[in-house]
From TrEMBL:
The lineage of its organism: Eukaryota, Metazoa, Ecdysozoa, Arthropoda, Hexapoda. Transmembrane segments: none annotated. PROSITE patterns: NTF2_DOMAIN. InterPro entries: NTF2-like_dom_sf (IPR032710), NTF2_dom (IPR002075), Nuclear_transport_factor_2_euk (IPR018222). This is NTF2 domain-containing protein. Pfam families: NTF2. Residues 1-74 form the NTF2 domain.
Length: 80
């Protein structure tokens, strides 16, 4: 919990959002979606705007949505 509390604050600006259903026959007959989001993030201790991409796989379990997989990536250009 201390680790999470020590993370800097951030502001996200969502630019694109896409959600695609996954065939229930492939995921044990559970309602499942793949969600992809892209945008900009600014961290409290660094005012440089950075591009991000985030992917979620969510599943309906007992009338609640559960995140079963999540990947967050900063899209920082490689400087040669």
């Amino acid at each position: 919990m201390k680790f999470l509390m020590d993370l800097p604050g951030s502001t996200h600006v969502l630019k694109t959002l896409d959600a695609q259903p996954i065939a229930e026959s492939l995921v044990a007959n559970k309602l499942t979606y793949l969600i992809q989001a892209c945008g900009d993030v600014t961290y409290q201790n660094d005012n440089t705007r950075k591009h991000f991409q985030q992917t979620f796989l969510i599943v309906a379990v007992d009338s609640k949505w559960k995140i079963v997989s999540e990947c967050f990536r900063l899209q920082i250009p490689h400087n040669s």
